Amino acid sequence: MNTFHLSGYPRVGAKRELKFAVEAFWKGAKSEAELQEVAAEIRRSNWATQKAAGADLLPVGDFSFYDHVLDLLCAVGAIPKRFGFDPANLTLEQYFQLARGNATQFAMEMTKWFDTNYHYIVPEWHADTEFSAHSARLIEQIKEAKAQGHDIKPTLVGPLTLLWLGKKKEEFGCRIKTLLPKLLPVYAQLLRELAAEGVDWIQIDEPILAVDAGEAWTNAFPEVYQELTNTGVRIIIGTYFAGVSEHIKLLSSLPVHGVHIDCVRDYPQLEVFADNYPSSKVLSIGLVDGRNVWKANLTKIIDTLQPVKEKFGNNLWIAPSCSLLHSPQDLAVEEKLDPEIKNWMAFAAQKLVELGVIKQALAHGKDSVQAALKASDEAAADRATNKKIHNDAVKARLESLPAGADQRKSPFATRIKAQQEWMKLPILPTTTIGSFPQTAEIRAARAAFKKGELSAADYDAAMKKEIAYCVEIQEKLQLDVPVHGEAERNDMVEYFGEQLAGYCFTQFGWVQSYGSRCVKPPIIFGDVSRPNPMTVYWSSYAQSLTKRPMKGMLTGPVTMFKWSFVRDDVPLSVVAKQIALALNDEVLDLEKAGIKVIQIDEPAIREAMPLKKSQWNEYLDWACEAFRLSSTGAEDSTQIHTHMCYSEFNDILPAIASMDADVITIETSRSDMDLLTAFGEFKYPNDIGPGVYDIHSPRVPAESEIEHLLRKAMNVVPVERLWVNPDCGLKTRGWTETIEQLEKMMSVTKKLREELNQAK
């Protein structure tokens, strides 16, 4: 029979059990033994679910307490020396400090995992980085799975991708020439130790094959895999998120036992590999989408795979397109979804069942799975024609946009003068990114309101109390452009999606964003529009509490679709522009209400980019147009901000400039302000606020650290265009540390303002 396998499964638990256990451990409310018990139960349940669906090879190494890239760094001994930890005796507490920082060391940097909203820990590469094998934790999980009677296939990020993912912390030359010769024997030793535990198959993920990494990287593959093939394990190379047809000759020639390809993201590559990949090797095909929530068209998939099976026989393997880490865990626990819409969906557990049906059909024919195929066909037909999806008014509005509809009335030089006339901001103006601490009281009030246990009036009073406190704190801190703190918002995407037509929501559709941080993405199932104002009420109340210019907060169109599970029956450009016009209605209503500083966040602008550079320009054209459409018609005196974080922007700066936001704020503290250098070299034309401290760590930075970063920024950006702000929103922080952090930021800002004023 054809092997059904997968490389990863959701690891936080069906109801976020791991998140709560990890956070309890951080607080000292759970012991390490108790945390390990929760982790073991999640693994046991996941493996049992996969086995019950018919999976033949179950993943090991996909579970992590924080991040799988960090886990591999620990396994190859490549943790930063600055922490002073011994890789051979790394404790769980020290492991978490690598990701979260401690009293003396800032956390390791995070950035987006390719084009997903998952954040990985970025390796820190130095010329003297050393490697050593530490397989104990992985071997423990291998033994655990085998003891439960499972056939397994460990999954690891490949050595070349690992090096590519990291950052050079100083200029020391090529990572391939400097670090690969040291990493490769250690990686090979790791595989030998797994082979000694009886591991037969191992999946080594090399997603850099799906990006334009360059010849130096692809040329290194033969030598690397010649070394790894002699380790006693059979290797399947995993690729995903884009096609790898251009590497068909390379992949065919490598001395490995197979390759996995993502045919959801690049369906045409299926024919290339079916015709040209050696049938003596395993060809694993991913036609079930591991990153979205829609049911697969089982009849189409089976018909597509049948001729491939005739050539490859049992060397045809089936799998999700990528790890199911990016999918919610189980649709069965959803009790409040519209039944019609729910019938179009499949979460991780249901995708396993779909793969089991495909495996059965390939082995015994379509007649053996007739009922499943009938249900799949009916769901596909209903979704294609259902009137809940289509809104003629939305389509007409988009189609009737005049030429130049996405342009502001005047250029930036004119707008900034009009804004400064009424705002009268000091040099180095200060603000925050938008959210303030989401306290237990806020979450309890929101939950009680949603359950009907708290009246609308009482909820309104509770949120206004939180907003008033937030504004009061900012007044005391003397922040120049305050925010209302977003107490009423559960999530920067979900909050808006709940008020937009064309969206629906789950109760338990959580996916991991980073560490213990989970998000519950909305689902865009149809045409999007805004029935009513979404933020005007709360922002207007906050403005009534201060004479300072209150900043309204919106989430941009690209982020709104990227951080949602998006419909796949129309182009993404159409979805983005529909959302942009809905947001534009909100911008103009805020402006009418007297909120004339409006932030339209686009942290996902980079992560939504195609992995292939040849597709960048097309994407950036419509993505930046969508952003501009969201503020079209705003007066020159209305200041439009945007925020971006945890991504690389160096190679798309012209596009970012074309968005024409009056002020952009970016995350820069974990990179020691290095990300800002490109903005300076590019001579970014508008105002910019680089983050001066890391909000993802609970530590309060010393004033000297903030001053160091701010002075670096002043050397790059003209001070008349420089803002001062934290890296990102403060939602995940506590009030005590938040106030202390902002006090230090304001103290440093005032000191430098005084210097600048004296120098005039």
TrEMBL record:
Residues where L-homocysteine binds: I433, G434, S435, E486, D601
A molecular-function term among this protein's GO annotations: zinc ion binding
Enzyme class: transferase
Keywords: Amino-acid biosynthesis, Metal-binding, Methionine biosynthesis, Methyltransferase, Repeat, Transferase, Zinc
Residues the record lists as binding 5-methyltetrahydropteroyltri-L-glutamate: R16, E17, L18, K19, K112, N117, R517, C518, W563, E607
InterPro entries: Cbl-indep_Met_Synth_N, Cobalamin-indep_Met_synthase, Met_Synth_C/arc, UROD/MetE-like_sf
EC identifiers of the protein: 2.1.1.14
Known catalytic reactions: 5-methyltetrahydropteroyltri-L-glutamate + L-homocysteine = tetrahydropteroyltri-L-glutamate + L-methionine
Residues engaged in binding Zn(2+) 1: H643, C645, E667, C728
Chain ranges of the Cobalamin-independent methionine synthase MetE N-terminal domain: 5-311
Residue ranges of domain Cobalamin-independent methionine synthase MetE C-terminal/archaeal in the record: 428-750
Cofactor binding remark: Binds 2 Zn(2+) ions per subunit. Binds 1 zinc ion per subunit.
Residue positions binding Zn(2+): H643, C645, E667, C728
Domain of life according to the entry: Bacteria
SUPFAM superfamilies membership: UROD/MetE-like
Family statement drawn from the similarity comment of this UniProt entry: Belongs to the vitamin-B12 independent methionine synthase family.
HAMAP family reported for this sequence: Meth_synth
Main function: Catalyzes the transfer of a methyl group from 5-methyltetrahydrofolate to homocysteine resulting in methionine formation.
NCBIfam families documented for this protein: met_syn_B12ind (TIGR01371), PRK05222.1 (NF003556)
Name of the protein described by the UniProt record: 5-methyltetrahydropteroyltriglutamate--homocysteine methyltransferase
Lineage per the UniProt record: Bacteria, Pseudomonadati, Pseudomonadota, Betaproteobacteria, Neisseriales
